[in-house]
Amino acid sequence: MAKGGGAREGGALKTAVIVAGGLALAWVTMETAFRPFLDRLRGAVSRNTDPARDPDQEEAPAAAEAEEEKTPAPPAPAVVEEKVEEKVAELEEKAEEAAAAADKAE
């Protein structure tokens, strides 16, 4: 009988290890599969449980300001035209200087 009892204990230990490994694998699989949803959920929970956060404070203007910072306003057309004219004038001067230097070299 002692041999049978020992075999059962070894079988129980093996079963416990397999179950624990299966649970760990299932947990890792769920974390990986639902990562975007879980990250969003954890962020919402941490915002709601943050003691420094004022729940009466509006969050919409802060989000609008963040979007404005990401997308700068395009420059005015007049400013762009002035810059283009300046660059064209610079290039024309350089072309004239290069032509004059080529004439002197000949």
UniProtKB/TrEMBL annotation:
Keywords: Membrane, Transmembrane, Transmembrane helix. The chain crosses the membrane at residues 12-30. One of its GO terms (cellular component) is chloroplast outer membrane. Residues 80-92 have a biased composition (Basic and acidic residues). It comes from the Eukaryota. InterPro entries: OEP7-like. Residues 46-106 are annotated as: Disordered. This is Outer envelope membrane protein 7. The lineage of its organism: Eukaryota, Viridiplantae, Streptophyta, Embryophyta, Tracheophyta.
